[in-house]
């Protein structure tokens, strides 16, 4: 008999029970005893997972995430197992992806990961595998329509789980150049080389975060506003969960669909979030080839072989043999800027390909009682793959830290060892044939080649910290962080409009209200102000009104509230203007000043004919594009930017961070769809956390795209509709809060 469960539906709390049906586990345990995990489901498809063991937590976590997202989750296992071409066709992209994952996630790498994993992490992963496999076995006939009766939903092993863990970690490093790794061969023509683009656009994978401390908050406790900007589709979507291991861990928040740990969340004592950091997680190395032999390179006085790794990619049309080439530093990467010619070859070393510490780090974070202990967890493990950490605690302390997996590459090493400096790029390329140019080893770091925590930026403050994907420099403008390696990020340079928006909105809130409340913190985000419009629109209007053909558009822009809320009229014109005004930075009246980094650049040089014509042309293009798409100039923003959910149109507030929107939604203008649709990235899991007078957490949140990506799920659009109206939900954390919102209870035995 299969694993069974008992379900209690939403009833008056007095009558809710967790009854168990007699059952046998899918695989009888060796000791003859059964383990169990309880999942309490509250509104909006949020699971509260409770077990006495990490194995039970893993089992329940897999079951809960699969319940809402099984089709997306299963695709990730297809990817990391190198089976895309087998199930989805032998396209070049699929074959390259498969070859990359088969070569990089090899058996020795898996063994290395398992050997480095702590017992608790092994137990969690083993439970996850069991829970996942039981779910697909017991739900085989009841899967969502998007993956029903498909051959690619298959059982997983612990080694598959490891592949997923590593694969997620290298997704924004080696994974970004997988085509250049999978297609590497000597002396390819430039026309056959892919572009080198290893960086993640912060408009794609970005975030905002603000931590307010006791000096500024009305309640004297910390307040954390977390606002990651992540994809609305695929495995990088977030999923809200709550896990409780009595006496050890009680944490609620969000994880990526493809991970089995809560990455952004809160406990009774702390709340934390992440933003994508500017720190590089990799470097390129240029290796000098032996004359006449493209398969050998020099390392000091030695000559080393480039190692070919043969893999067989199974496709729907048969097997294909591919070769990946490895050096002692990492795989060979070919691109338009890193050719494999007669003299040199290039390799990439990715710090996260060597990162087995993330799981333990998040376990320790969830046990921290204040931001100091959280920082200690970051410093101990340095397992954060590519993010800053911003946090607040119940005592009113805040933390900013980029204490993460960063190569130990100092400014001196960059100066001494950099090559290809004539190529304009932030990529650091070092002389790989000089052994002294490899990442330095420091015994105080968590692993060889990592920059030690003492040389990474962090700040604990009682007023505030923030980050919006610029570097560490102005995490608190009153306490600038300076003197760190360029590999971490720039200092004393122009900040993005979005960073400036957040900092100026904070200052305005303090000037108006004196103290910060949770409501004020939420308003900083949900006012949907367009900061760029606030500093540029007056100049635009002064030019606009000189063209009689633009008078209607000018009038609408003048009346616009300079927000991108659902009801805002005029935002459509401004967005199309900005889309057309690609080189607007060349027309700034006031350039960046180190003396006033929060307010510069500013204004447009409208006294110049060149600028006036630039503005008029962009405005004409904006009006013309809206007219051609049959979008009225006076449309509400929610009618122009939207998603479709089961034939229902849902307006989406927010807009482009490049314009100075703090509330970020990224979508391309699609005239065939009637506006900005579909949504690609932006506001995702948003949490606003503080603590009450008794020290209990008070958390509100919204998951903009809802818990499930499946159209046949009841949780496909419920939270999206709330987000459209600027509404939040209260996250039930305590036992009493959970019981008050209880919909059903599952008790799983295994």
Largest sheet: 11 strands, mixed
Say which CATH homologous superfamily of the largest domain is assigned: Aminohydrolase, N-terminal nucleophile (Ntn) domain
Helix content: 25-40%
The span between the termini is: 11 Å
CATH architecture of the largest domain, please?
Answer: 4-Layer Sandwich
CATH topology of the largest domain: Glutamine Phosphoribosylpyrophosphate, subunit 1, domain 1
Q: What is the overall silhouette?
A: globular
What is the radius of gyration computed over CA atoms, rounded to a whole number of angstroms?
Answer: 26 Å
- Count the beta strands: 32
CATH top level assignment of the largest domain: Alpha Beta
**Structural domains: how many:** 4
Structural class: alpha+beta
Tell me the β content.
15-25%
Regions with pLDDT < 50 over 5+ consecutive residues?
Answer: 1-26
Overall mean pLDDT stands at 94
Q: How many DSSP helices?
A: 19
Strand order of the largest sheet: 1-32-2-3-6-7-8-9-16-17-19
Structure report:
This protein is α+β, with helices and mostly antiparallel strands and 750 residues long. The protein folds into four domains: 7-177, Penicillin Amidohydrolase, domain 1, CATH 1.10.439.10; 178-200 and 281-354 and 412-437, Penicillin G acylase, beta-roll domain (Roll); 206-279 and 357-410 and 443-525, Aminohydrolase, N-terminal nucleophile (Ntn) domain (Glutamine Phosphoribosylpyrophosphate, subunit 1, domain 1), CATH 3.60.20; 529-652, Aminohydrolase, alpha-helical knob region (Penicillin amidase (Acylase) alpha subunit, N-terminal domain, Orthogonal Bundle). The protein is built from 19 helices and 32 strands. The strands form seven sheets. Strands 1-32-2-3-6-7-8-9-16-17-19 form an eleven-stranded mixed β-sheet. Strands 4, 5, 20, 25, 28, 29, 30 and 31 form an eight-stranded antiparallel β-sheet that branches. Strands 10, 11, 12, 15 and 18 form a five-stranded mixed β-sheet that branches. Strand 13 and strand 14 (318-326) form a beta hairpin. Helix 1 packs across helix 5. The longest helix is centred in the first third of the chain and has 27 residues, at 54-80.
């Amino acid at each position: 008999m299969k694993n069974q469960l008992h379900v209690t539906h939403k009833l008056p709390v007095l009558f809710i029970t967790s009854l168990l049906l007699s059952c046998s586990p899918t695989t009888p345990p060796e000791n003859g005893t059964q383990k169990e995990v309880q999942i309490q489901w509250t509104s909006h498809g949020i699971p509260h997972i409770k077990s006495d063991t990490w194995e039970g937590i893993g089992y329940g976590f897999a079951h809960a995430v699969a319940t809402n997202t099984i089709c997306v989750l299963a695709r990730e296992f297809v990817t990391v197992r190198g089976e895309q071409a087998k199930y989805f066709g032998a396209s070049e992209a699929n074959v390259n992806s498969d070859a990359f994952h088969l070569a990089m996630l090899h058996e020795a790498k898996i063994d290395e990961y398992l050997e480095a994993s702590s017992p608790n992490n092994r137990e969690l992963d083993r439970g996850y595998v069991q829970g996942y496999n039981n779910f697909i076995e017991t739900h085989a006939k009841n899967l969502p329509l998007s993956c029903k009766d498909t051959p690619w939903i298959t059982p997983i092993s612990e080694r598959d789980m490891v592949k997923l863990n590593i694969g997620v970690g290298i997704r924004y490093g080696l994974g970004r150049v997988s085509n250049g790794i999978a297609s590497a061969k000597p002396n390819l023509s430039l026309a056959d080389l892919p572009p080198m683009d290893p960086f993640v656009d912060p408009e794609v994978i970005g975030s905002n975060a603000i931590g307010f401390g006791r000096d500024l908050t009305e309640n004297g406790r910390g307040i954390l506003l977390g606002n990651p900007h992540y994809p609305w589709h695929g495995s990088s979507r977030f999923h809200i969960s709550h896990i409780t291991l009595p006496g050890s861990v009680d944490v609620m928040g969000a994880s990526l669909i493809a991970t089995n740990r809560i990455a952004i969340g809160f406990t009774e004592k702390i709340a934390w979030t992440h933003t994508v950091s500017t720190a590089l997680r990799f470097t390129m190395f240029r290796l000098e080839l032996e004359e006449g032999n493209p398969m050998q390179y020099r390392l000091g006085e030695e000559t080393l072989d480039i190692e070919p790794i043969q893999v067989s990619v199974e496709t729907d049309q048969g097997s294909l043999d591919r070769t990946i080439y490895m050096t002692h530093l990492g795989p060979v990467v070919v691109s338009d800027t890193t050719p494999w010619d007669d003299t040199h070859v290039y390799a990439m070393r990715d710090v996260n390909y060597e990162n087995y510490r993330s799981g333990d780090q998040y376990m320790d974070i969830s046990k921290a009682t204040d931001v100091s202990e959280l920082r200690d967890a970051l410093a101990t493990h340095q397992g954060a793959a590519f993010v800053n950490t911003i946090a607040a605690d119940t005592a009113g302390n805040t933390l900013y830290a980029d204490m993460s997996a960063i190569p130990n590459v100092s400014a001196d090493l960059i100066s001494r060892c950099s090559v290809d400096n004539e190529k304009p790029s932030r990529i650091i390329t070092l002389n790989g044939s000089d052994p002294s140019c490899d990442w330095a080893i420091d015994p105080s770091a968590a692993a060889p080649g990592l920059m030690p925590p003492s040389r990474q930026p962090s700040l604990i403050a009682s007023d505030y910290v923030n980050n919006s994907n610029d570097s560490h420099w102005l995490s608190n403008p009153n306490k600038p962080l300076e003197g760190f390696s360029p590999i971490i990020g720039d200092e004393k340079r122009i900040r993005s409009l979005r960073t400036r928006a957040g900092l100026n909105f904070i200052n305005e809130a303090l000037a108006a209200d004196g103290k910060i409340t949770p409501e004020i913190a939420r308003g900083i985000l949900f006012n949907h102000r367009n900061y760029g419009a606030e500093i540029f629109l007056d100049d635009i209007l002064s030019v606009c009104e000189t063209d009689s053909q633009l008078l209607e558009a000018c009038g609408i822009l003048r009346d616009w509230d300079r927000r991108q809320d659902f009801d805002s009229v005029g935002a459509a014109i401004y967005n199309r203007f900005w889309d057309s005004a690609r080189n607007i930075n060349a027309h700034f009246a006031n350039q960046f000043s180190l003396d006033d980094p929060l307010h510069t650049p500013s204004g447009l040089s409208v006294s110049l004919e060149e600028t006036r014509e630039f503005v008029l042309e962009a405005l004409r293009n904006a009006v013309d594009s809206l007219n051609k798409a049959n979008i009225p100039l006076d449309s509400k923003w929610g009618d122009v930017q939207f998603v479709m959910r089961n034939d229902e149109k849902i307006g989406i507030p927010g807009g482009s961070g490049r314009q100075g929107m703090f509330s970020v939604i990224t979508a391309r203008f699609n005239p065939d769809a009637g506006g900005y649709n579909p949504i690609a990235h932006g506001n995702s899991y948003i949490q606003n956390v503080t603590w009450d007078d008794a020290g209990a957490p008070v958390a509100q949140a919204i998951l903009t795209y809802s818990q499930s990506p499946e159209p046949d799920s009841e949780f496909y659009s419920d939270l999206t509709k709330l987000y459209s109206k600027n509404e939040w939900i209260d996250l039930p954390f305590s036992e009493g809060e959970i019981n008050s919102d209880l919909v059903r209870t599952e008790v799983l035995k295994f």
